[in-house]
Input
Amino acid sequence: MSKKKKEKSKEPSSINQDLKDAILIYLKKLKNNKPISERQISKHLEPRYTKKEILQALYKLTANGILSLHDSNKFQLKSDKRPGSSKVYHGGEEVIGIVDMTKSGSAYIVTEEEGEDIFVSPRDTNKAMHGDKVKVLIHQRKRRPEGIITEIIQRNRTIFIGRVDKEKYCFVIPNDSDLHVDFFIPDSKSVSLKHGDKVIVEMISWPEKGKNPIGRVIEKLADNTDDDIEMKSILIQHGFYLDFEKPVLKEVHAISTEIADEEIKKRKDFRNTTTFTIDPLDAKDFDDALSVCEIETDIWEIGIHIADVSHYVREDSALDKAAYKRATSVYLADRVAPMLPEALSNIICSLRPDEDKLCYSAVFTMNQKAEVLSEWFGRTVIRSDRRFVYEEAQEIINDKKGDFYRELQLLDTLAHILREKRLKEGSLNFDSQELRFQLDEKGFPVGVVEVLRQDTNKLIEDFMLLANRRVAHFISEKEKELKKNIPFVYRVHDFPDEDKLKDFATFAKLFGHTFNYDNMKNISAEMNALMDKVEGRPEERMLQQLAIRSMAKAIYSTKNIGHYGLGFDFYTHFTSPIRRYPDVMVHRLLQKVLNGTYPNQKAEIEDKCKHCSERERAAMESERESVKYKMTQYMESHIGETFSGIISGVKTWGVYVELPEYNTEGLIRLDCFSDDRYIVDEKKMQLRGTLTDKIYRLGDEITVKLIGIDKQKKTIDFDLG
Output
């Protein structure tokens, strides 16, 4: 090859697509699409990419007409390439989006173009429901785009909880406030239903000329407690399923618990290697185990063994489709809605002690500096020697004696080194408080306790992070080796939003803290230093919550832009396939790469990533709502009592107060401040009395009296104590 041809192969045409995506994501977030220099862009992308790579990508994007280059050597998105601010809808244009239904019956259509939401009046929703994927026809634009829904592409959900109305005909009135239609129940079996019964109803059709959708009652909840119904309602309202269908259970029932010798011969055998699990006390699905083997002095083989769910859950089977629909297990305050049937998650796949189990493993040769000297990924068979709970393992480390003390001590030492390295390299350190309800035999909350994170919790976390990181890095190295893109599932986390960081800095200043957000490369160090400074102080939890809100949300994607929060250039989810579908996908894709059969369905994988990200958000919202409900249940018995709290928010309608002891928040309405006429200053986050000059400001300690709760709305009301 001539020198000229060699130089040509290094032209910007070969620039990494992920780098281009990262540049465009950053530029789209800039206010007013202002021109920005290569140096400023590099500050946000180094050290993930070199200055040379970034500059090449910028010139390539300019050559392709996506960016414009100014005389001042600054780059800018061309206005027609900036969907977040320039997208204008025109009459007659058809757009696809998601329905965001309002309580009034009107809707907004949220599109992927990130342009302005499209308003749809109640008469033009055309039988669409909240969360449905629809096609909308733009018919006019005044101050905002307006449209008519012309097609329902995909229903968000078809299962609902409601109350039977059987005065004349049989209807089910749904609990959801964003549904404005009742379900007609024509089934003759509806005669067994009584007026007022609470039921689960499935929508089976909606006739073209029908005013109401037709439903089928699939479960009667008349004998269930309000608490049980509320938990089921939370799951159903967020699109999760309560039970597995018969074909799914049939497939699970057909799975043998015995492991054939032929299968064991295909795998690396770790059954004679010291192996154990460390989990919470109430855990039933043990999906990860650690093995330790000394190879030579100060050199160890550390195995991270993950339940081989993909061996049992075959692609496109009924079981696989059910798992994909859910995409995640949901951990409510009093129960778990599993992604997989319990026979699979708690028995067949669970890495229980003294049982041979099939795993997918990441095995590392490591030295005493926690450096990875070599690595291996593949299918294994293990036999766990012991099941530890976190507290047991911690006690052995602390007392320096007990089962597998030497192995536990080694893992703890290596984990400390890994953690220290990660924090130095830019990983954010948010160690938030976690509370758990103590429940009686009926599931009623009788107490609230803090869950203490010990070194053993962090030990497991650090080795899972190592496995996730190295698997993603392995794929990137394979791409370099093959000089081709390999579609894969990455766990990505974008840069923080600068406006939110500015708000956070303003908020921190109210408590006398300085937060410098000018240099994006130093944000993690600044944030960690501030969190260390406020540890144990009244404002700690508020600042921590706002710091988390200032960050982007981590998602799944085939486009690797790195994980900002962890400070990793490459990251995936490999270690929890029992409860996360993306991990199952990662196991399958990794095996294809190891077999030399490289996947090429990038668009299909990206669609699945979006689905899994959406289901993850729904699960988190479900979990939050369940905690709020349990808290109102618990606090109901404390009405009339006084508590010490901290002002956590100031609004025109009142003051929010957090009770640190219970990790919960309630509202003192403005009219409760009756000793003076108070002026609300939201900017300074304070109330000031016009006569007394008395001030209630953010972060002030305050005594409050609990005067009421609303379990339906999941809210708590306080008065001044």
